[in-house]
Amino acid sequence: GSVTMNGAVWVPGGAITLSSPQAAGYTGPTSITIGDPSAGATANGTVGLFAHGYSDARRIKGLLVRSVHPGGSITLSSPTGDVSIAPGVTIDVHGIQGVADLPRGSGAALATSPYEPVSIDGDAGSLTVVAATGVVGGTLNLRPGGPAGRGGAIAITDASNGSPVVVTSQQPASSAGALTVVSTSITQAGADDLSIIAAGTED
User: Fold this and answer.
1) Three-class SS of residue 88?
2) Which residues pair with 113 in a beta bridge?
3) All residues at 6 or more sequence positions from 116 whose CB lies less than 8 Å from its CB, including other chains
4) Alpha helix segments (H runs only) across the chain
5) What is the model's pTM?
6) CA Rg, the chain, in Å?
7) What are residue 97's phi and psi, to 5 degrees?
8) What sign does the dihedral 189-16-197-85 (CA atoms) show?
9) Minimal CA–CA distance to 42: which of 78, 8, 69, 74?
10) Which of 23, 22, 17 is nearest to 5 (CA)?
11) Do 112 and 132 meet the contact criterion of CB atoms below 8 Å apart?
């Protein structure tokens, strides 16, 4: 079947999975479309998937202890069909910068707090796309929270039987039977790791 999303999903630090498998006996097309202009969606940054890092605080033995959590994961899977991310759509698993209270060493003075405030550059999360055709574009954010953090990982898998992966600097209106990767979306994402697994690649 098909999945079309024209809104926003927020799961800080969590896992978001959109899947459109081909069920047994079903021979029709499958697709995942994020930001569908034909459905009246306005992709201006308000349409997207958000699993970025976050900070929180909880009480431990009467003390308020802060934590910084990394970005989560976003998976878009349509192995026999299409995955399309429209221009202006945001896919966000960036890390954040914050203060975490970490346990002090065993030699810390008894009169002090058992926790020490430390500035943390949080790690970003991951984006995984599995499709036969479509467009991997939009605004991708896999930046770390700071220089000490780790950028995210992008993994794109062409699940077709021989269709090429086309890498282009401009987002096309359609994939024209191939899985298209918009290079500017990738290079501006701030990721540390990139994997593109395909039957063939065109520059």
Assistant:
1) coil
2) none
3) 101, 102, 103, 104, 108
4) 183-187
5) 0.88
6) 20
7) -105, 135
8) negative
9) 8
10) 17
11) no
CA distance 91 to 142: 9
**For the chain, first and last CA: distance in Å?**
31
Structure-block tokens of residue 11: 């799961």
CB 148 within 8 A of CB 76: no
pLDDT at residue 55, rounded to an integer: 97
Buried b (16+ CB within 10 A) or exposed e, 65-102: bbebbbbbbbbbbbbbbbbbbbbbbbbbbbbbbbebbe
- pLDDT, one tens digit for every residue, the chain (203 residues): 788 899 999 999 999 999 987 665 666 678 999 987 665 555 555 899 999 999 999 999 889 999 999 999 999 999 888 999 988 899 999 999 999 999 987 665 555 788 999 999 999 999 999 998 899 999 999 999 999 999 999 999 988 877 677 888 776 665 567 889 999 999 999 999 999 987 544 44
Given a contact cutoff of 8 angstroms between Cβ atoms, the answer to whether 77 and 102 are in contact is: no
Q: How many Cα atoms are found within 13 Å in the side-chain-facing hemisphere of 157?
A: 12
Cα–Cα distance for residue pair 65/129, rounded to 1 Å: 36
Residue type, 7: G
- CB 131, CB 179: distance < 8 Å: yes
